[in-house]
Amino acid sequence: MNRESLKALTNAHAWVGLIISTILFIIFFAGSISLFREDIISWERDPYFTSSEELESFSIDEVISQVTKNYKVNTHGYFILQMPTAEQPSTNLYFEEKIVAKGNLDDEQGDHPEDHIDRHLIISPNGKVLGDGNAFDWGNFLYQLHYNLHIPEIGLYFVGVVTLFFFVALLSGVVIHWRKIIVKFFQYRKDGKKDKLLDAHNLIGVMGLPFHIMYAFSGLVFNLLIVYQISYAVVLYGGDEGKLFKAAGVVDVHLEETNVAILVQGLDKLLLTAKESLGEVDIARISVDHFGDESASVTFRGDDKSQFSTRKEVTYHIASGRELYLTKNNYDNDIRGGLAVIASLHFGDFAGYSLRILFFILGIGTCYIILTGNLMWLQKRANLRSEKQNKLGLQLVRAMTTGGFIGTIFATAVGFMCARVLPIDLLDRSDLIGQIFFACLAASLIASLLIKAQQQFAAIFLKITALALALIPVLDWLMLSQGIVVMFKAGHFDVLIVEVILLSLALCCWLVSSTLFVSAERAVDEQQNQLAENSIGKASVIS
């Protein structure tokens, strides 16, 4: 590649990275935290509801019996039960409750979305309702922030487009540094500020390249999958989505409703049958279709831990016990099996905590790559002559870097604090925490736009963020020490895992802040020395 082409590619790489930098930082930071989504959910919820009851007392039929006494489950909606584990004997139940309008005795006519409400109940092993799970949604909030930024409808595709540009930036970066990847792989010039940023950017980028390519590709598959489906349906199947889904291995075992009501019982017995059929599989999820109707069916699903990313499931007609569908080979289809493999790679859930910790470190490292890219761009622009600078654009990029990057971490820390201190019976608790998160992020961006001394502001802001992160474990033990101890005795260490993650982030923020303080003081000294030299020079000229 000639020099002009390399220069053009480098500029394209810099501008693509700059344009998507803030959104990409949010995506990767939230995604890194979301690797421990289940731990965060348990951290927020379980100290209030930890049960000392034995897991052997759990009965699906007893849970359904207790729930149907107090709630009218919508026959046309979903009914999903997450199975308990030895570490967490309480379980989660998700279903639609049918709301009957006043004065309408024929509740079967209430068939509109507004006539239903989503329920999420936390159930003890003996079937008792412990609380409302909708109040504990902070872990899911971070996960949703990762894949659609909480933007309704178009957010998923917007993140997909950003991921596509990230993929382009990866490829262009590899081409730019291809000849020097081996020779200068371990190069790290700590003396020059620009060289230090460049070397860190290149080193972390090359070391994490397989990780970045995997995440870029899998993110494209998940976020833009609907685009592929539409294309395939139109081009290959003449617009027939039914043929497309059949070719993709989607098995339809749906039974037509009979409008004959029955009691949903006998699932404990079917669970034993499912375990015999599926073999060495830990059944984690149970779903009921057409709950309360004679046509109701139940699906038992679980992962085969003896094989990589292999999910198995079996479906039975509840009334007769007849088997409707059985798979022992990851849905018996290469497409569905391939998507399951991609999902396992993306979520890092196939090799325990060690792999998730590695993915977390690489994810935070990617955030640092994004940061160094912006800092190099700002440094290059600052060195240009003043008449060539767009001061408004420069200030905007600085604000997006300081307020967007640090503001995301700070807003996350505040979100964790709110998830711990807000009363669990507060109305719309989860929604309020989300609103506080976005308010903190917006305030950070506005403050960054108004403050001129960006380096000093970033250093102070990082220290405040570090202190906020470090305060969360203190709040845990001040408020819920008894529940946490009970969790520890039951072998349930999610609170400790989350606290270690938060303290690690706090340490990183504090160390970076200390470095910025030293750099800021050095810059101030240099500026004062320059002013002093200019004053001496002027005095000499006058004399």
Radius of gyration, in angstroms, nearest whole number: 28 Å
Work out the helix count: 16
Major sheet description:
8 strands, antiparallel
* Number of structural domains: 2
Strand order of the largest sheet: 4-3-2-1-5-6-7-8
Envelope shape? globular
Q: Write the element-wise H/E pattern from the N-terminal end onward.
A: HHHEEEEHHHHHHHEEEEHHHHHH
**Low-confidence parts lasting 5 or more residues at pLDDT below 50?**
105-111, 523-528
Salient structural properties:
globular, 543 residues, alpha+beta, 2 domains
How are the SSEs placed, and which strands pair?
Elements lengths: L2 H32 L2 H13 L10 H11 L8 E4 L8 E8 L17 E8 L5 E4 L5 H11 L6 H22 L16 H15 L1 H15 L1 H11 L5 H7 L19 H12 L3 E8 L7 E8 L5 E8 L5 E5 L6 H14 L4 H31 L8 H31 L7 H22 L3 H36 L4 H49 L1
Antiparallel strand pairs: 1-2, 1-5, 2-3, 3-4, 5-6, 6-7, 7-8
Helix pairs in contact: 1-4, 1-5, 1-12, 1-13, 2-4, 2-15, 2-16, 5-7, 6-12, 7-11, 12-13, 13-14, 13-15, 15-16
Could you describe the 3D structure shown?
The chain starts with a helix and ends with a helix. Strand 1 (about 80) and strand 2 form a beta hairpin. It folds into two domains: about 5-40 and about 140-225 and about 345-530, no CATH class; about 55-125 and about 250-330, no CATH class. It is of the alpha+beta class. Helix 1 packs across helix 12 and helix 13 packs parallel to helix 15 (about 455-490). The protein has an eight-stranded antiparallel beta sheet, sandwiched between helices. It has helices spanning about 5-35, 35-50, 60-70, 140-150, 155-175, 195-205, 210-225, 225-235, 240-245, 265-280, 335-345, 350-380, 390-420, 430-450, 455-490, 495-540; strands spanning about 80, 90-100, 115-125, 130, 280-290, 295-305, 310-315, 325. It is built from 16 helices and eight strands.
